Amino acid sequence: MSEKSIPRLVQGNEAIALGAIHAGCRFYGGYPITPSTEIAEEMSRLLPHIGGSYVQMEDEISSIAAVIGASLTGQKSMTATSGPGFSLMQENLGYAAMAEIPLVLVNVQRGGPSTGLPTDPAQGDMMQARWGTHGEHSIIALVPSTVAECFTLTVEAFNLSERYRTPVIILSDALIGHMRENIRLDQLLKAKVIERPQPWMSPEDYRPFASTERTVVPLAPIGTEYRYRVTGLVHDMSGSPKTGDKRTIEDTGRRLRSKIYDYREEITRVEMTAMDDAEVAIFAYGSVARSAYEAVMWARERGHKVGMVRPITIWPFPTLQMREVADQVHSIVVPEMNIKQIAWETRAAIEGRANVVSMNRIDGTLIAPGEIISSLRDVLRAKGGAA
Amino acid sequence: MAKLKDLTHKEDTLGSGHRLCPGCGASIIVNQLGRMSEAPMVVGCATGCLEVATTIYPYTAWNVPFIHSAFENSAATVSGMEAAYEALKSKGKIPADDKRNFVAFGGDGGTYDIGFQSLSGAMERGHNMTYVCYDNGAYMNTGMQRSSATPYGAATSTTPIGTHATAGKEEYRKDLTAVMAAHNIPYVAQASLSNWKDLMRKAEKAFTTPGPAFLNILSPCPRGWRTEPGDSIELSRLAVSTCYWPIFEVDNGEWKVNHRPKNKVPVTEFLKPQGRFKHLFAKGNEKVLAHVQEKIDHDWDQLLWKADFSKDRTAE
Ligand SMILES: Cc1ncc(C[n+]2csc(CCOP(=O)(O)OP(=O)(O)O)c2C)c(N)n1
């Protein structure tokens, strides 16, 4: 065994910082907030050593704004926050979506609304990640449920943000962020990194906001011979504001949606566990998926045909995958640390193909395996089986 | 001003049992200031150590009406209360002779940085309120990250000492008191717990001045400064005698320096007992230390110049 493959005990937030560095992130716009602060602290320590910059901003509006500016120069850039800070970032999140600027925004969820429960986990921002900023747009959001995944999904978030020229959100939570697990860094460092593509056309033909077959035109670093304008206003292909032309307005809005939505099969990943013959599925994500996994083991030991579907990508929602699951099982149990945010989305996605049983907890406590098991029992009993 | 004996009989604004650290300046500031409030106080407080440690569920240490706003806007929240109170008064729904003392508190992060816009707006609009910043020089509640009040050279959890940043924070602190004076409000003052009488006079003045007032008070933080809890007041004293934290006031545009040390103590005396400056005393950082002293001398001269200019002008 090489020295490098010795497991290392790492915190979820630290793994996000390590993943970001591996992905090539060289700018971090920081602002402290529990339970995400370790990401900023880690980046402030690491970045100066590798020619990157950590800049602590005066608030979260500025930290995401600085990330937008930094990303335009060609640097992969990131920020991390939690509840109140995520709320403050919403306007600029929309700006990044509108101006198609790649960036990674980590939200280590805590209880809300407002100052809420600063040190306890929650999953209350699932819908805010999707719809928090105003206006029609698409977004990509990933949900890690292990420390290793904090690393790999951060790399993936950067890759997706570059591939689709879009902000990508990582929805961690206080439990995953502050938990420590062994990771094998040598293995994780094999994660593939996508570099930002450069324009293939001449500066004269460069239209950074045109639609192409591959969804987006590469973003040239600002300030080069590839001259273009950037605006949050509705704009044409060159970036000039065009708020009077109905056709441009409609096209821009539709393209912002379709550039991600049309590729959702490529983007959206779910992990299936014991699903081959399952008649009941647990649909769980983030820290709750860890308890759900225990519940599946419990059920299988007793011969119940229960499996688990874990979304790794929550936005775009794995609609097609969930429809297939719903055609196979009679019930889908959705445990989450919010009140039905993803259960509702699941219901909408599967259009009545299966029964959706939601279970919720919003007191800052992780849903325990036993609670999921008792929900499972009810579901199995209702179907006439002994549980 | 009231007599010390009378002040000791006044009820504390913060009751015992709050969970601020031993040696923390914030609770002392609140309790001393509270003694100077003739009218019943109404308090707004930004997120931060003061708010967190005094209102741990299901308790509150506050003996006055208290609103914890969002982190970034205690000044705006209090200005809303004050404006509505005035409106109710003018409609006769509150007796015309009723008096309330609207006070907003914030740490330096909640005042110099994220709350700055809200503070600036409230002061410019002229609300009859006092904003008090307890400046402990970093975001302490979240674990000592740098703020724009963090002094040059201090090590914080986001300006760590390492091979690439040996000097800690590489930027000067923002002179917020001067910035507030530039708002042309009736009363602005900088104070220190070590100069108690001066502090109490400033509190009284701020509370009784019609219109907005701003107080900036140095708030020692043993956890963040890496100092002994028992040294907090002595450190405040050194901050004043080294001119790191001059005590002064801007009263209707007139600058007054309230204490001019006869022999300015070298700033190293203030820095040395603090763990956050330990690296500055390592070999190789002599230049940084010299620079800190130069900057303090420069700022002090400038302050004296402003005060002298004010005096000459009033004399004319
Ligand atoms: C919008 C928002 N961003 C960040 C936070 C996290 N936060 C809570 S308290 C705090 C530090 C406060 O620092 P300061 O104002 O200097 O007061 P201190 O803790 O030092 O007393 C931070 C960053 C928050 N609650 N809301």
Written overview of the protein:
The complex is a heterodimer of chains A (387) and B (316). In chain A, the strands form three sheets. In chain A, strands 2, 3, 4, 5, 6, 7, 8 and 13 form an eight-stranded mixed β-sheet that branches. A five-stranded mixed β-sheet of chain A has the order 10-12-11-14-15, with helices on both faces. Chain A has two domains: 1-267, 3-Layer(aba) Sandwich (Rossmann fold), CATH 3.40.50; 270-382, Rossmann fold. Chain A has helices at residues 12-23, 37-46, 60-72, 83-88, 90-99, 126-131, 147-164, 174-178, 185-188, 246-261, 264-267, 286-301, 319-328, 341-350, 369-382; strands at 8-11, 25-30, 53-56, 76-81, 103-111, 117-121, 140-142, 167-173, 180-183, 270-273, 280-283, 306-311, 313-315, 331-336, 355-360. Chain A has 387 residues and is α/β, with parallel strands linked by helices. In chain B, helix 4 runs parallel beside helix 6. Chain B has a single domain (4-315), classed as 3-Layer(aba) Sandwich (Rossmann fold). With 316 residues, chain B is an alpha/beta fold. Chain B has an eight-stranded mixed β-sheet, with helices on both faces. Chains A and B meet through helix 2 of A and loops of B. The structure holds thiamine diphosphate.
Low-confidence stretches of chain A: none
CATH architecture level-2 label of the largest domain in chain A: 3-Layer(aba) Sandwich
Task: Please name the fourth-level CATH homologous superfamily of chain B.
Answer: Thiamin diphosphate (ThDP)-binding fold, Pyr/PP domains
Termini separation of chain B comes to 30 Å
Largest sheet, strands/sense/barrel of chain A = 8 strands, mixed
